[in-house]
Structures are given as C-alpha cells and as structure tokens.
Amino acid sequence: xxxxxxxxxxxxxxxxxxxxxxxxxxxxxxxxxxxxxxxxxxxxxxxxxxxxxxxxxxxxxxxxxxxxxxxxxxxxxxxxxxxxxxxxxxxxxxxxxxxxxxxxxxxxxxxxxxxxxxxxxxxxxxxxxxxxxxxxxxxxxxxxxxxxxxxxxxxxxxxxxxxxxxxxxxxxxxxxxxxxxxxxxxxxxxxxxxxxxxxxxxxxxxxxxxxxxxxxxxxxxxxxxxxxxxxxxxxxxxxxxxxxxxxxxxxxxxxxxxxxxxxxxxxxxxxxxxxxxxxxx
Length: 281
Fold this sequence. Notes:
It is a multi-pass membrane protein. The chain is built from eight helices and four strands.
C-alpha cells in the first residue's frame, strides 16, 4: 500500500538566462499541437477542406487564452480587471479559468462558423463544436497535468494512500492532500477517449450538439464534485456555500443537457445516394 506520494518535481525543465521552459507551458502547447493533428484527421475523414484547420487553430488559441484570462479576472479578481485591464494581456499571465476558456471557445467557434457559412463547407457551429470537444478534452488533460507539475490547484488534506505531499508549494508543504489536478486530468482523458470513440462510430451521422452536450455534462458535473476536494482559489470563497467553480459549473451542465436533448430531437438526415438511371435501349 502506498504511504503517500512525495511530489517534489521541479516545474521548470530548463532555462537559458532569464528564459525558462516549464512543464506547464510545454503541456499547454502539446494539447494544441496534438489537437491540430486530430482535427486534420477529422477534416480528411469528413471531406472538409484541410487548409481550414490552420484558421481554426488560430481561432482556438486566441479564444482559449483570452477567454481563460478574462474569465479568471472577471470571476476571481474583478477589482484587478477594472483597475488595470491591460494585465489581461501582459505577462506573467498568471491565472487561467476553465469556465472562461469554455465561453471564449464557444464564441470563437461561433465566429469561425459564421465565416465558413458563406463558403458552403458544412462547418456549422454545432458541427465544429462537436468535433472540437475531442481536442479540448485532450488539452484539458494536458493542462491539468501541467497544474500538477506546478504543484498548484491542490486538494484538501486527506489520509488516502494515494495522497500527494507538495514539497515545492510552501503554502501546503508536508501535508498529504488530494491530487485534485490528477483527478481532473484523468477525467478529461476518459471523456477524450469516449468522444473519440463516439465520433469514430458515427462521423458525419453524429447528432448535432450531442458531443458538445456530453462534454459539458461530464466535465462540469465532475468539476462541481471535485471542488469539494479542492482548496478554494481565492479568500472570498471561504464564506460561500458553493465556491465560484461550482456556481459556474451549474449553467454549463444545464447547457450540456439542453444540447444533448436537442441533438436527438433533430437527428442528422444524410441525403441518399443517387441511383444510376437506367438507359433505355
């Protein structure tokens, strides 16, 4: 039986002068790079213009970072946002909120789909969002593992045998805690496999909005539950019945239920292949 995990991993891989490469940044970038390859595969399988994945990547990167940064300051540090809004885009880029990233991605994909609508490529908002959930789930697994490498977003004290002692975080040093980052990372990995299997089975017959619904329900239901095992991120949450992460997860789950129900009320009907006409002799 495990006697706790002593976690003393250095968050920095290497540095050259003042420039450093950290595990978190590498994993963050890796999520986008692998996601790009997955989307390229999906576009090929469903006969969509592969060149569009370059544009889609730009939309996703900008929407994710801006949404996550704005979400962090809006939900957790609104006073900083209103006093110094430039801090959203200035380094050191501390603070990224997954709920904000979700909103940002949905808005970014809506803008992307509007651009595609005039080109008759079939990349509607729900077509794109369904498939992008596969890559977002994988990116979420990478990012949460990056949080583990940073010894941040830690869980509450516990005596379970798989508890982690975060040596490199002086605020929580020498106290065994739930590895909440690992819980969320593994949960994202599970839904990544589920969504990839779901798409691989149905492809163009995938009910529009079904994968988005599954993703939102899975991720944010578990996020709501995991918050009971995590330390609050900001002090004002200590006096709340539900913390900010839980409050923001409720509408996300409800939105997922809406999309899932809607997807099966409006099934995809593919055109029947034309039969060859008989030639009269």
